[in-house]
Amino acid sequence: MREPIRRPPHRGVLLLVQAWVVLVLVVPLLALAWTVLQRPAETFAALIAPEALRALWMTVQVTVASLVLATVFGVAAAIVLVRHRFFGRSALDALVEMPLAVSPVMTGLSFVLVFGRPGWLFPYIDQLGLRIAFAWPGVLLATLFVTLPFIVREVGLVLAELGEDEELAAATLGATTWQTFWRVTLPNIRHGLGTGAVLTVARALGEFGAVLVLGGAIAGRTSTATTFVHTALEERQVAAAYGMALLLAAITAALLVVLRRLERT
């Protein structure tokens, strides 16, 4: 196959793209950073306040739990969708994409109608003494929904590109299913898994709509870093809101740097 001809883009198109990126991305971030740097002591004091630290800790907990569960079920789903053929496969494959298209706010409301006080499953959950809506499990459930596609899609793309030759060879040599997975499949999908994991963490850190509706943003219980920003703005705590927003932006930027390095390896 012939290499594509590499040539610089048209100057007008290049300027248009650069102006668009600067307008919708660089300028808002610079404005946020400049606002925070105007009063660094006040911002730092707001970020180390107990309420802000609890919100950050909630975000860390939910993100780690989401990453673990998304990795386990995402890899399993990718293998099932790529390596197997069964009735309903196309429908399942399409459902995996749904979180990318559905509004997070609508997602949170839908979960409330299932697990909340007027929900279908609430009587059974209540008998067990469990709380999902407006509790930590609800925040986790909302985050799991919005992060569902990333590991499934990234690992699935790698599996489809690799094919089954190495796995079939391992099976022919007497390897069990688990041995084939640990020694052949998992090492081969590590880059796709790493990319999906980074995207999952970034999405979990930034989720707001579904977490707000299903979790309720209860201070000290279900408030996350993003809902903390929302609440702080409503209460005119500008330094806390802008500081937390900038912190989340910095973490996300660091994750994107990691993602770019993974793509180059």
Describe the structure.
This protein is mainly α. Helices cover 78% and strands 0% of the residues. The protein has helices at residues 11-37, 40-47, 50-83, 89-101, 104-115, 122-127, 136-162, 165-172, 177-188, 190-206, 209-215, 225-234, 238-264. The protein starts with 10 loop residues before the first helix and ends with a helix. The mean pLDDT is 88.
Helical content class? over 70%
What structural category arises from helix and sheet content?
mainly alpha
Q: How would the global form be characterised? A: globular
CATH superfamily: MetI-like
Strand content: under 5%
Topology as a string of helices (H) and strands (E)? HHHHHHHHHHHHH
CATH topology: MetI-like fold
Query: Segments where pLDDT lies below 50 for 5+ residues?
Result: none
Mean pLDDT rating: 88
Multimeric state:
single chain
What's the CATH C level?
Mainly Alpha
CATH architectural group:
Orthogonal Bundle
Gap from first CA to last CA: 23 Å
Strands, count = 0
Keywords:
265 residues; mainly alpha; MetI-like fold; 13 helices; 78% helix
Brief digest:
The chain has helices spanning 11-37, 40-47, 50-83, 89-101, 104-115, 122-127, 136-162, 165-172, 177-188, 190-206, 209-215, 225-234, 238-264. With 265 residues, it is mostly helical. The radius of gyration is 22 Å and the shape is globular.
